[in-house]
C-alpha cells in the first residue's frame, strides 16, 4: 500500500469512526475471561462489556460515548498533525518576491499553519495527500526521508482506525492446548464469527473449547 492509498482511506473512513463514537458494542478483542465463557457455537457471547455501561455496572444507561473510539480518534488526529507539522517544516517555502507577492503567498490557503485553529483530521490527511501527490502550492518536492515519514504515519493511523472499526482480522493464542499438545489460535476481531484452529495439527474447533 502507498501513503496516497492510506491517506485516502483515512479521509473516507473517518465518518464511520465518528459514527462509532456513540454506537455501543459488546465485543472486545481478544475476548476477556475464560475461553469457555466467550466462545460459543455462534461466536462471541453478546453480553455487553462493563465499559459500555455506566460506572455502576447496573446497566441502567449507556455511556454517552465509547472511550476506546474517542482515544483512537484523538491519537490519529495527533499523529497526523505532528506529521504535517514536520513535513511543512521541510517542504513549505517562505514567501518571496515583492511586498505584494509576499503578502499573497503568506495568505495562500494551501499553506500549513502551526498556530491558531488546528485543522481537523480529514483536512490534515488531505493536506498530506497533496504533498505526496505533488499538488501545486508554495512547496518544494518531498525529500525521500520526509516521504517515508508520511508513509509510516499514514499506515499507522489507518491501522488504528481499522482496529477501532473492527475491520482487521486478528489472531491471539488461548491458554488451553489442543489434544495434540499444539497451541490453539483464536482468529477474529473484525466483526465476523471468530474461530479456533490448532497451529500444530490444524484441528478446527467449531464450538465451545473445553477447559
- Kindly, what is the distance between the CA atoms of the first and last residues, rounded to a whole number of angstroms? 41 Å
* Count of alpha and pi helical runs: 6
Biggest sheet overview: 4 strands, antiparallel
**Elements, N to C (H/E):** HHEEHHHHEEEE
Helix content: 40-55%
Report on the architecture of this protein.
Strands 3-4-5-6 form a 4-stranded antiparallel beta sheet, with no helix packed on it. The protein contains 6 helices and 6 strands, in the order H-H-E-E-H-H-H-H-E-E-E-E. The relative contact order is 0.18. It is elongated and about 80 Å long. With 211 residues, it is α+β, with helices and mostly antiparallel strands. The two termini are 41 Å apart.
Outline the secondary-structure elements.
Layout lengths: L2 H18 L14 H4 E2 L2 E2 L22 H25 L7 H8 L14 H13 L10 H21 L5 E4 L10 E5 L6 E4 L5 E2 L6
Helix pairs in contact: 1-5, 1-6, 3-5, 3-6
List keywords for this structure.
211 residues; alpha+beta; 4-stranded antiparallel β-sheet
Amino acid at each position: 500500500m502507498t501513503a496516497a492509498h492510506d491517506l485516502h482511506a483515512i479521509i473516507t473512513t473517518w465518518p464511520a469512526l465518528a459514527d462509532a463514537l456513540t454506537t455501543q458494542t459488546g465485543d472486545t478483542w481478544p475476548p476477556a475471561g475464560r475461553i469457555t465463557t466467550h466462545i460459543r457455537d455462534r461466536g462471541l457471547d453478546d453480553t455487553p462489556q462493563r465499559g459500555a455501561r455506566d460506572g455502576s455496572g447496573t446497566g441502567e444507561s449507556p455511556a454517552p460515548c465509547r472511550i476506546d473510539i474517542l482515544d483512537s480518534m484523538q491519537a490519529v488526529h495527533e499523529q497526523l498533525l505532528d506529521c504535517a507539522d514536520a513535513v511543512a517544516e521541510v517542504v513549505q517555502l517562505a514567501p518571496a518576491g515583492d511586498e505584494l507577492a509576499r503578502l499573497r503567498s503568506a495568505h495562500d490557503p494551501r499553506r500549513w499553519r502551526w498556530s491558531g485553529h488546528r485543522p481537523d483530521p480529514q483536512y490534515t490527511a488531505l493536506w498530506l495527500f497533496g504533498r505526496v501527490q505533488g499538488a501545486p502550492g508554495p512547496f518544494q518536492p518531498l525529500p525521500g526521508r520526509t516521504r517515508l515519514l508520511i508513509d509510516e504515519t499514514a499506515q499507522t493511523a489507518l491501522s488504528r482506525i481499522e482496529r477501532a472499526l473492527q475491520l482487521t482480522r486478528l489472531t491471539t493464542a488461548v491458554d488451553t492446548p489442543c489434544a495434540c499438545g499444539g497451541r490453539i489460535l483464536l482468529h477474529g476481531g473484525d466483526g465476523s464469527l471468530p474461530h479456533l484452529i490448532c497451529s500444530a495439527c490444524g484441528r478446527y474447533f467449531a464450538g465451545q473449547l473445553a477447559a
